[in-house]
Design brief:
It comes from Uria aalge. Belongs to the UPF0585 family. This is Methyltransferase-like 26. Pfam families: DUF938. The protein has 138 residues and is of the alpha/beta class. It has a single domain, classed as Vaccinia Virus protein VP39 (Rossmann fold). Helix content is 40%, strand content 23%. The chain is built from four helices and five strands. A five-stranded parallel beta sheet has the order 3-2-1-4-5, sandwiched between helices. α1 packs parallel to α2 and α2 packs parallel to α3. The model has no long low-confidence stretch (mean pLDDT 92).
């Protein structure tokens, strides 16, 4: 498992903000660019009523995400999917229009190409439910 120091430092403050959007009911969440998976596992465990779908473009990250889910025993975290956010939402692991409550992207936009950020916003416009939230950090 990879363990980025920045992810360790910011997981608590980010969770505090995510809790504001979590509410009491079940939520469908897609995390784009989940990286090592520390955030995905931490947030899914802390928000047990979510169905957390992590994703990344890097196969090494997918392995790390799987390891975090197994090590932390997070039952509401789905197996990670390979996702290239610069491609159309139709390729995003079968996610259907207007089905997501939260679309989460942490530390992607400042390191990815502009077409990735554009893809994220286009996908959010289609995949989020009315009132759904695109949550970005970094």
């Amino acid at each position: 498992m990879q363990a980025p120091a920045a992810a360790e430092r910011n997981k608590g403050p980010i969770l505090a903000v995510l809790r504001e959007y979590a509410g009491p009911g079940a939520l469908q969440v897609l995390e784009v660019g989940a990286g090592a998976g520390l955030h995905a596992a931490y947030f899914a465990r802390a928000l047990p009523r979510t169905r957390w779908q992590p994703s990344d473009i890097d196969p090494r990250a997918l392995r790390s995400i799987t390891a975090y889910a197994e090590a932390m025993r997070v039952p509401n975290m789905l197996p990670p999917i390979l996702l290239d956010v610069s491609q159309g939402w139709e390729t995003w692991g079968g996610t259907q229009p207007a089905t997501l409550d939260l679309l989460v992207s942490i530390n992607m936009m400042h390191i990815a190409e502009l077409r990735c950020t554009e893809g994220l916003f286009k996908g959010a416009g289609v995949l989020l439910k009315p009132g759904g939230v695109l949550f970005t950090y970094g």
